[in-house]
Write a structure and sequence with these properties.
Layout (H helix, E strand, L loop, with lengths): L5 H5 L4 E16 L5 H12 L6 H23 L3 E4 L5 H11 L5 E18 L6 E18 L3 E8 L6 E6 H11 L4 E4 L2 E5 L2 H8 L7 H12 L14 E15 L2 H18 L2 H7 L12 E6 L7 E6 L2 E8 L3 E8 L6 E8 L2 E8 L7 H18 L10 H7 L3 E3 L2 E3 L7 H10 L2 H6 L3 H9 L6 H20 L3 E3 L6 E3 L1 H17 L1 H7 L1
Parallel strand pairs: 2-3
Antiparallel strand pairs: 1-6, 1-9, 3-4, 4-5, 5-6, 7-8, 9-13, 10-11, 11-12, 12-13, 14-15, 16-17, 18-19
Helix pairs in contact: 12-14, 14-15
Length: 516
């Protein structure tokens, strides 16, 4: 994790190490049968058979996959278990691993009934037609202890089109890499609570997106799907996409007390202060009037591991929670990659140009996923850098009430607990402004709402906000960013303004209301 991360710099005395690493990765392989028309043409022209005879063929090959799974389990001495109902597969595999020692290889094969996309036959005009629809079918789960990826599983649906899903965990893969590099670590579940060489661990974690994924995934498919290469399928091969990617940024604290004191304030700040525009900014988007979707913030405190806050933008998430009371985890989950835009080469008017395009799901776009998720996590952490345990002294707070001088002119003192000053402090301490810098227009919108249509009114508002910014600069709470029209909050400003906001809204809100 880079040392220029504001959050890591601010809480450096309490943080032992940081690690950016993929967590859950789900790859999905599809055979080239995308539409109903393509399927019917394949049966008519390629197979040269009646459409109604295709369903019995599918049933026959479904049994072939089940028989192959039973044989693989028997050859490896692993259990094969069939369930007609929903089961907790992870708990079942953990129990199997605890019952006896397992070397690398097949751990278990679980066969479950699930509803998946497959083929059906329907009446058509003149002749029946085949179409894709969802129906219950047997699904095979192969659980492995892989030499490279650790505990992983592969899911194959037994009915046509035999879609395959490969699940790996980035932390499991990194643990295997650290063992091979003889670098010490302590792993609990999917987190590291001790790293002897954090820099070395980060270098290894950054290699994951650069693995030859298409070659690796094809090898898994050939190993478990005996139908590949069959005469009736021809040269059909899987097209691999990233179905889900979770990228985590972990900060390991020295002890539980340090994180326990800070974490509730982080959750409170994220819940109360991060707006929809802020969340879109973290994810590399802008709030646009044509944005069609929801941006939600959900806080769950009843979960057994502890409190978790989730920001949801359509079907993509940004989460914050703690692991074992020692690790602060920020996690970006990408399910809909086309909601993000990346730079790619495209042909425009006969010339190749670098243009902004929606991010695709193909596995060859893995490096784009890495850049987008990494940037989102670090933006979120930097926006949380304004949160801290109040450390301002009475003398520092009292100094704000005294007049100050700016550019040779006298400026009035501030009343830190006054409502107008509090509103100004909170406007300046917005998370997105800490990322991009404070502009006059940003503070004006936070204080006075939408921009007025009247030009004279806009100018009066701009002048008014300029005076307020000069007032904050006179007291050393903000400073101008060189060669720009933006400002940043100083360390003094973070301490004093945060302490004032905390004192008014957290420590004694009832007492102040009673006085009013």
């Amino acid at each position: 994790m880079p040392t220029n991360l504001h959050f890591a710099q601010k809480f450096a005395p309490a943080i032992v190490a940081g690690l950016d690493c993929y967590d859950r990765l789900i790859f999905k392989g599809h055979l080239p049968f995308g539409s109903d028309g393509h399927l019917n043409t394949f049966v008519d022209a390629v197979l040269g058979m009646r459409r109604k005879d295709f369903i019995p063929l599918v049933e026959k090959h479904a049994q072939t996959l089940v028989d192959s799974a039973k044989k693989a389990a028997a050859d490896a001495g692993a259990p094969y278990q069939h369930y007609e109902y929903r089961c907790n597969k992870e708990a079942t595999v953990r129990r199997i691993l605890l019952e006896r020692h397992h070397d690398d290889g097949l751990v278990a094969v679980l066969c479950c009934k699930e509803t998946c996309r497959t083929v059906k036959l329907a009446h058509g005009q003149g002749r029946p037609r085949l179409y894709f629809a969802k129906r219950p079918q047997r699904v095979l789960y192969y659980y492995f202890l892989d030499p490279q990826f650790g505990l992983m599983h592969i899911r194959i649906q037994t009915w046509f089109p035999f879609t395959i899903q490969v699940y790996v965990n980035g932390h499991e893969w990194l643990a295997r890499q650290l063992l091979a590099a003889k670098s010490g670590f302590v792993q609990q579940d999917n987190a590291f609570t001790q790293l002897d060489e954090p820099q070395r661990a980060q270098e290894l974690a950054d290699r994951l997106p650069r693995l030859p994924w298409v070659k690796l995934l094809n090898a898994f498919a050939r190993r478990l799907n005996p139908l590949l290469g069959a005469k009736w399928l021809g040269k059909a091969a899987y097209y691999w996409v990233i179905d889900q990617a979770e990228y985590s940024s972990d900060l390991l604290f020295k002890n539980r007390a340090e994180l326990a004191a800070l974490f509730p304030r982080l959750v409170e700040h994220a819940l109360l202060h991060f707006s929809a525009a802020d969340i879109l900014t973290f994810l590399g988007r802008r709030l646009h009037p044509r944005f069609d979707g929801e941006v939600l913030t959900l806080c769950k405190k009843e979960r057994i591991p502890g409190t978790r806050i989730k920001h949801r933008m359509k079907n993509n998430w940004l989460k914050m929670y703690d692991k074992f009371g020692l690790v602060l985890r920020i996690e970006t989950v990408i399910n809909q990659p086309r909601e993000f835009r990346v730079r790619r080469r495209r042909l425009r008017q006969g010339h190749e140009q670098m243009v902004w395009c929606p991010m695709n799901k193909g596995v060859t776009n893995f490096y784009h996923y890495h850049k987008v998720a990494h940037a989102a996590n670090h933006r979120y952490l930097d926006a949380l850098a304004v949160v801290h345990t109040p450390s301002a002294t009475h003398r520092q707070l009292d100094s704000l009430s005294a007049p100050a001088t700016f550019n040779g002119r006298r400026r009035r003192g501030l009343n830190p607990l006054r409502g107008e000053e509090q509103k100004l402090f909170r406007a300046v301490l917005q998370g997105n402004l800490c990322l991009n810098g404070i502009r006059n227009r940003d503070v004006a919108e936070a204080l006075y709402g939408r921009v007025p249509k009247d030009l004279a009114a806009r100018r009066r508002r701009t002048v008014r906000v300029s005076r307020l910014l000069q007032l904050l600069r006179a007291h050393g709470l903000i400073a101008k960013i060189a060669y720009s029209q933006r400002y940043r909050v100083t360390d003094k400003g973070m301490n004093l303004m945060s302490a004032a906001v905390y004192a008014r809204h957290k420590l004694m809100p009832k007492e102040l209301d009673a006085v009013a």
